[in-house]
């Protein structure tokens, strides 16, 4: 992640809105080229402010942002040309057709008619059959796909997706991620904000977490998930229980039904064998065992709670 290799470099970036609200507080991180990079955080953490600064829609208060080697202040045209942003809100003119929407957007970027990719992008987004329909007649999912196509008309090396699957059905979400992965395989760097933590865990190579305008984590996804120390084991025993057994190696124990216990424990202090051994030492016979591994949600919640 050395200097010129970063797709996006953010250095001590701050934003104070009029009225004194501090949205970003000296945020610094790099987005490595060629990765799918997750930007996570609770509502109001500063994610959209950061994206809007990169898109040129919000003016930063201080700090520096460099997109594909172009400083957003010194080279605003080149930096904007290097990034495509899919906003959270579905915004476009309802009286243009999808093809017209893409043609107009390409014209704004100065792309010659012979070099435009409108039909190719519509096909990639499964919108070819709607190319000449009024945009206002499209479903919510189709409108969101059209926004993705619109962000890609100038073939930017970086695509930013701000909550792209909010309110989208499961099938469309899968289609969208297949397309994002194919773009990434072609070399496009993807920055993703999402509230669906399982989505981030599945897709992202690296994740930064923002809370109250500060970066509280920035690590490879695998390393971040490994930070979750709490594991759970569900144990079925051979007889009905009136009360739950106790042991110092249990973090928490819950009686799910008369014969089923869910026990959480800290994996850096004890292992599943010790947990099960504590039960058998109490004279309980174990009939069945299943475990639940920690996930990104566990890490996210613990980091945000600390923050």
Task: Walk me through the topology.
Blueprint (H helix, E strand, L loop, with lengths): L5 E11 L5 E11 L3 E5 L6 H8 L7 E6 L2 E2 L4 H6 L1 E4 L11 H11 L9 H7 L15 H12 L6 E5 L7 H16 L3 E5 L3 H7 L2 E6 L2 E7 H6 L3 E8 L14 E6 L2 E7 L5 H10 L4 E7 L3 H11 L1
Parallel strand pairs: 3-8, 3-9, 6-7, 7-8
Antiparallel strand pairs: 1-2, 1-4, 4-5, 9-10, 11-13, 11-14, 12-13
Structural features, described:
There is one protein chain. This protein is α/β, with parallel strands linked by helices. The protein has two domains: 3-225, P-loop containing nucleotide triphosphate hydrolases (Rossmann fold), CATH 3.40.50.300; 228-306, Alpha-Beta Plaits. It is 31% helix and 29% strand. It has helices at residues 47-54, 76-81, 98-108, 118-124, 140-151, 170-185, 197-203, 221-226, 272-281, 296-306; strands at 6-16, 22-32, 36-40, 62-67, 70-71, 83-86, 158-162, 189-193, 206-211, 214-220, 230-237, 252-257, 260-266, 286-292. The strands form three sheets. The protein has a six-stranded mixed sheet with strand order 6-7-8-3-9-10, with helices on both faces. Helix 6 links the parallel strand 7 (158-162) and strand 8 (189-193). The two termini are 26 Å apart. The model has no long low-confidence stretch (mean pLDDT 88).
Distance linking N and C termini: 26 Å
Number of strands: 14
Q: Please tell me the overall pLDDT.
A: 88
Report strand %: 25-35%
Our count of helices gives 10
CATH topology of the largest domain: Rossmann fold
């Amino acid at each position: 992640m050395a200097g010129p290799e970063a797709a996006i470099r953010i250095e001590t970036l701050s934003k104070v809105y009029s009225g004194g609200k501090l949205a970003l507080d000296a945020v610094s991180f790099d987005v490595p080229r060629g990765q799918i990079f997750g930007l996570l955080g609770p509502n109001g953490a500063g994610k959209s402010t950061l994206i809007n600064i990169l898109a040129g829609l919000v003016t930063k208060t201080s700090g520096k942002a460099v997109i594909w080697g172009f400083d957003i202040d010194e080279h605003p045209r080149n930096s904007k040309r290097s990034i495509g942003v899919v906003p959270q809100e579905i915004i476009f003119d309802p009286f243009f057709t999808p093809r017209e929407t893409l043609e107009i957007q390409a014209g704004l970027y100065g792309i010659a008619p012979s070099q435009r990719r409108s039909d190719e992008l519509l096909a990639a987004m499964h919108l070819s059959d709607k190319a000449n329909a009024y945009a206002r007649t499209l479903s919510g999912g189709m409108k969101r796909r059209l926004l993705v196509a619109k962000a890609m008309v100038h073939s930017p090396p970086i695509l930013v997706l701000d909550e792209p699957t909010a309110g989208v059905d499961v099938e469309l979400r899968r289609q969208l991620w297949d397309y994002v992965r194919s773009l990434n395989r072609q070399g496009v760097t993807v920055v993703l904000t999402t509230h669906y933590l399982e989505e981030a865990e599945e897709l992202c190579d690296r994740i930064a977490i923002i809370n109250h305008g500060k970066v509280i984590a920035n690590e490879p996804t695998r390393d971040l998930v490994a930070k979750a120390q709490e594991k759970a084991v569900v144990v079925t025993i051979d007889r009905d229980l009136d009360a739950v057994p106790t042991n110092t190696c249990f973090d928490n124990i819950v009686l799910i039904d008369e014969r089923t216990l869910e026990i959480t424990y800290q994996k850096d202090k004890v292992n599943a064998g010790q947990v099960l051994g504590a039960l058998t030492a109490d004279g309980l016979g174990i009939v069945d065992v299943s475990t639940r591994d920690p996930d990104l949600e566990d890490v996210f919640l613990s980091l945000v709670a600390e923050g």
